[in-house]
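Following up on my earlier thread - several people asked me to post the actual chain instead of describing it. Fair enough. Here it is, all 269 residues.
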Amino acid sequence: MATTALNLNVHSPLQAACDAAKTGGRILLEQLGKAAVREKAPDDLVTDADVASQNAIRQILTSRYPQFAFMGEESTPTEQTAAQESGRPIWVVDPLDGTANYVHRLPGFSVSIALVERDQVRLGVVYDPLSGVLYWAGEDGPAMKDGKPIRSSGCTEISRAMACCSFTPNVHRNDPTVEQFLRVLERCQSLRRLGSAALNLCFLAEGCLDTYWASSVKVWDVAAGYLIASRAGVVYSHENGSDFDLWKPVFLASATGPLQQQMIECVKV
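Reply from S.P.:
Thanks for posting it. Predicted structure:
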C-alpha cells in the first residue's frame, strides 16, 4: 500500500493541527449550553457543536494539506473506512471528546487531532477549550503542555496510584468493566471516571493520573493522547497485556512498567 512521506521536522502540520484544534474549541465554547442535542445510539450523544467543530477543523486541515485523508468521529462510516483504506496519512479527529460533559456544561471536554500514517501517530494535539490548555507532541522530543515539557508521574505502586477508567455509555452492572472497576478500587489510592479519554491521557502524561484503562473508545478518542502520553514516558498495552492496537484501542496505560504489571493483574477478565 503506497503512502505519502511525511517531513515533520518542519512544524507546519503541527501548527495546522494546533490552529484547527483552537478553532474547533472556540466553536464549542460559543455553542456551550445552546447546541441542540440528539442520540446517535442509546446514551451516545451528539450535538450541533460536534458537527460545527468538525466542519471547521476539516476545512483548515484539508485546505492546508489536501494530500492527507480525513477521518472524524462525525464522518460517515463509509468516509471513515475510505480514509483508512486510502493509503495516505490521515488526520484523525474528535471534534468534541467528552460530549456528555459538554451537554451538562461540566468541565472535562476537549478537541483531539492526530496525524496517523498506517499504525504510527506522527503528531497529536489535544485542546481543552475551557482552560485554554494545549497539549501536543511530535514523533521526536518531549510531550508539551502550553509549550513546556511534561512527564508522567513515575508511580510504581498501585496502592499509591490515582487511577482512571472509561465505561461504555450504556454500561450494565454485570459488564466486565464494573468488575474491573471494583478490583482496582480495592487496591488503588483513588479512582476516577472523568469523561474525556483524550484529556485522561494528557493528565496521565503530566502526572495528574498514574494509570488509565478503557475498552469502549475509538481511534479518534485516543490517537493524539496516545502519542502525547507515550512521549511523556507512559507504558501501553492491551488490557490483557498483549500489544496495544491503535485501531482497536482496548488498552491499559500506566506511568511505569511496574505499575502497568500490577494493573494488568487487576483488569484481566
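Residues 1-11 have pLDDT under 50 and may be disordered. That should answer part of your original question.
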